[in-house]
Amino acid sequence: MALVVQKYGGSSVADAEGIKRVAKRIVGTRASGDQVVVAVSAMGDTTDELIDLANQVSPQPPARELDMLLTAGERISMALLAMAIASLGMEARSFTGSQAGVITDATHGRARIIDVTPGRISSALAEGAIPIVAGFQGVSQTTKDITTLGRGGTDTTAVALAAALHADVCEIYTDVDGVFTADPRIVPTARRLPRISYEEMLEMAACGAKVLMPRCVEYARRYEVRIHVRSSFSDKTGTWVMGHATDDESEEAGMEQAIISGVAHDRSEAKITVVGVPDRVGEAARIFGIIAEAGINIDMIVQNVSAVATGRTDISFTLPADDGRKALDALREAQPVVGFQDILYDDRIGKVSLIGAGMRSHPGVSAKFFSALAEAGVNIQMISTSEIRISVVVSQQDVDTAVSATHKAFDLDATEVEAVVYGGTGR
Questions:
Q1: From CA 83, how far away is CA 128, in angstroms rounded?
Q2: Residues near 40 by beta carbon (within 8 Å), at least 6 away in sequence
Q3: In Å, what is the CA distance from 41 to each residue of 45, 83, 218, 227, 395?
Q4: Relative to the CA of 184, which of 191, 289, 339, 347 has its CA 20 to 30 Å away?
Q5: Could you tell me the CA-to-CA distances from 81 to 11, 12, 33, 155, 277 in Å, in that order?
Q6: Residue whose C-alpha is closest to residue 341's, from 276, 286, 287, 279
Q7: Helix (H, G, I), strand (E, B), or coil: what is residue 294?
Q8: Is residue 347 within 8 Å of residue 303, measured between CB atoms?
Q9: Each residue's pLDDT expressed in tens, for the chain with a length of 427 residues
Q10: Interhelix angle 214-223/198-206, nearest 10 degrees
Q11: DSSP letter, residue 176
């Protein structure tokens, strides 16, 4: 008997029919002899609707109360799903994040999981029930307040439960049939990947692939949780996220590492250029210290060569567009102290990334990537690399062209259309 943790996203439980379809899948897994624990998201667009409602009531809702409101979405879907399972003749018990033992820090809106103490989940399993856990939420270890985990929080809840329960697999059910070499909405001929390493999936998630969130993949890598990405709308094989991007593992598996796993893109970033920064020791540290104090994550950074005549340089960096206003305000406030000349802001950019563990041992990947973009008429604004990733910043209007051109240049197209987006969101 295997222990399986299953996660169902909002598109899978968007309405009563969806909930009943998910209940049948869960009951089918249990009837086959496996134990099942389920993490479920709020129905459809419930979370967005609750945020809109909160903003109508208050221009700046208190973070604690907003978390209390938003967790209601998952509580609705968990209870309805438990009812649907009961109607099929099996016992299910619904649990909030705090009841399930998901313990977090005290940061509202983007809390991090500190520990999972799944005593009540284990008891329910021992008594033959199917535990249904509300995703995206937990309870603060210090304040005892309800917290939410931020975007993709139900994925993280599922993996955290799988790790704590020593589950055999964590199945992430979405509205696509697995992880593809590119977003099927842009590249209809994208291929499904039967397997991808934690490191490659982490890079793809961080670079905009929305099928899994980076925190979920990082948690899985840390605790060696095998993830199986599947569609709740079909019975297709899906994609396994497991193993590490090492040559040794590829050799043990008896296969050569694919050069490129996929092309990811992200339209949610903005670019800030700090113009005329004094070229002195410590100035860059001061600028990024200001950004860090504002609680903003930086992605790509480029510093120009200092102009000899002026002794000044320009520093450009990308960050989430949602944090753009906060970053600009913080930098402008510090301008008299730092002494830079101006700030430029551009939120009409996109990031396109080429990911693959095989590029470490294959020369010429960068040249082919940049040549493909040049031939497609796409201008590159910034470049960033890691051992298994090359990312470029381009104009937002060029993102689709860049993704398609890159996908074709590296022969990633399938011979026939494999990708079907059932729910319309990729989640």
A1: 16
A2: 7, 8, 13, 22, 74, 77, 78, 81, 132, 133, 134, 135, 154
A3: 10, 16, 20, 17, 34
A4: 347
A5: 14, 11, 20, 17, 57
A6: 276
A7: coil
A8: no
A9: 899 999 999 989 999 999 999 999 999 999 999 999 999 999 999 999 999 999 999 989 999 999 999 999 999 999 999 999 999 999 999 999 999 999 999 999 999 999 999 999 999 999 999 999 999 999 999 999 999 999 889 999 999 999 999 999 999 998 788 999 999 889 989 999 999 999 999 999 988 888 898 899 999 999 999 999 998 888 888 999 999 876 444 444 444 556 899 999 999 999 999 999 998 899 999 999 999 999 899 999 999 888 777 889 999 999 999 999 999 999 999 999 889 999 999 999 999 999 998 888 788 999 999 999 999 999 999 999 988 999 999 999 999 999 999 999 999 988 766 666 665 543 3
A10: 160
A11: S
Q: What residue spans of 195-311 are helical by DSSP H?
A: 198-206, 214-223, 247-252, 283-293
CA–CA separation, 23 vs 100, rounded Å? 20
The interaxial angle of helices 46-57 and 63-87, nearest 10 deg, is 150
Q: Residue 205: what residue type?
A: A
> How far is residue 180's CA from residue 194's CA, in Å, rounded to a whole number?
9
> How many residues does this entry show for the chain?
427
Residue 11, token pair as written in the block:
């598109």
Distance CA 212, CA 426 (A): 9
Residue corresponding to tokens 């082919």: 368
Q: How far is CA 281 from CA 120, 284, 286, 334, 338, in A?
A: 55, 8, 10, 17, 12
Judge contact between 172 and 7, C-beta under 8 A: yes
Q: Enumerate residues 6+ apart whose C-beta is below 8 A from 362.
A: 259
What is the H or E stretch that residue 140 is in?
A: strand 137-140
Q: Round the CA-based radius of gyration of the chain to a whole number and report it.
A: 23
The answer to whether the beta carbons of residues 106 and 145 sit under 8 Å apart is yes
d(CA 33, CA 55) in angstroms, rounded, equals 46
Residue 137's contacts (CB-CB under 8 Å, 6 or more residues apart) are 67, 70, 71, 74, 96, 97, 98, 102, 146, 147, 148, 149, 153, 157
Residue 144's CB is within 10 A of a number of other CB atoms, namely 9
